[in-house]
Amino acid sequence: MSLAPRAVLVHRTTEYEELVARHGTHGQAAFFLSSRGRDIEEIAERHRRTRRALAEVTAAIPLTWRQTRVERRDLDRFLFAPEDVVVVVGQDGLVANVAKYLAGQPVVGIDTDPGRNPGVLVRHRPADAGALLAATADVEELTMVEAVADDTQRLVALNEIYLGAAGHQTARYRLGLDGDGGAAEAQASSGVLVGTGTGATGWIRSVWQERGGGLRLPGPTEERLLWYVREAWPSPATGTALVAGELSAAGRLTLTVESERLIAFGDGIESDAVELTWGQRVTVGVCGERLRLVGG
To answer: Using 50, 70 and 90 to split pLDDT, how confident is the model at 202?
Structure first.
């Protein structure tokens, strides 16, 4: 006997809730903002829209389904089940935050603030939730990127993976293509960024624009990645020949650490980073798993 689906509503604490938690009361938070020329009402209204959206989506969940909620900061401790349908209620970035913890579960993206969010991943309105939950087989499979270290540590991301030093120190490493069967170079830089077609609407796009857009940006479902070395520094021991490129589905970028400590993190979440030490090797490429976005 199979279990009924479980709707997992993923949300994040609103700015208003964070302000009230910090200052104790609505009035104290309002006073704090007014002393800096800001009105709390704009933030409070966004909070109310988010709560209305959560209520509307909750009401649309079929009565025969189970349901639960999980806040963004608790995602790394939440156990997703195979029968889950994940409903992200919030911003585009929240879909990227949850993607790394999934194993093929369908994801519904609900935009709580149309016009303020780009709507790249949260493409639907709360009123659409019922129809979307009835059509979870209609998905768009978005390419993800993974980094695998030689000690079996693994990191998965929807937008991009950054490899480099924590803070603003120089990262030193040896960069290679396709398992060093091709070119390889010792480098000192601000780190390496490897991004997907979904990430091509964010951080990887800004680097792409800086470099003149010479490479074609991948589409969200395309099994192709772009990579860029940030601020490579030329010296007698380090080069700048390998600073940008693309990876096909089978292609891999390898990085051998030549610093005391480097980190790798995905989608801007530095608090959930893989730590790498001198001599370790990490390989980055297209992930075999996909994010299954409903109603793409």
So the answer is: confident
Give the helix ranges, DSSP H, for 86-242: 92-99, 129-133, 203-210
- What's the CA dihedral at 77, 17, 121, 161 to 10 degrees? -50
Cα separations in angstroms, 277 against 18, 123, 151, 187, 259: 36, 40, 11, 16, 7
pLDDT higher than threshold 60 for residue 103:
yes
pTM: 0.89
| Mean pLDDT, rounded, for 15-33 | 94
Alpha-carbon distances of 11 from 27, 33, 183, rounded to whole Å: 25, 25, 44
**Of the candidates 235, 274, 236, 270, the residue with the CA atom closest to the CA atom of residue 255:** 274
Query: Is the per-residue pLDDT at 259 higher than 60?
Result: yes
CB 71 within 8 A of CB 94: no
Q: What pLDDT is stored for residue 181 in this prediction?
A: 57
In the chain, which residue ranges form alpha helices assigned H by DSSP?
A: 15-23, 26-34, 40-60, 92-99, 129-133, 203-210
**Radius of gyration from C-alpha coordinates of the chain:** 21
How far is residue 76's CA from residue 89's CA, in Å, rounded to a whole number?
18
| N-terminal to C-terminal alpha carbon distance within the chain | 31
Contact in structure between 256 and 174 (CB atoms under 8 Å):
yes
Average of per-residue pLDDT across 85-97: 95
| Residue 183 CB contacts under 8 Å (≥ 6 apart), including other chains | 176, 177, 241, 242
Give me the residues paired with residue 275 across strands.
Answer: 263
Percentage of the chain exceeding pLDDT 90: 86
- Report the alpha-carbon distance of residue 169 to residue 52 in Å, rounded: 44
Q: How many Cα neighbours within 13 Å face the side chain of 45?
A: 6
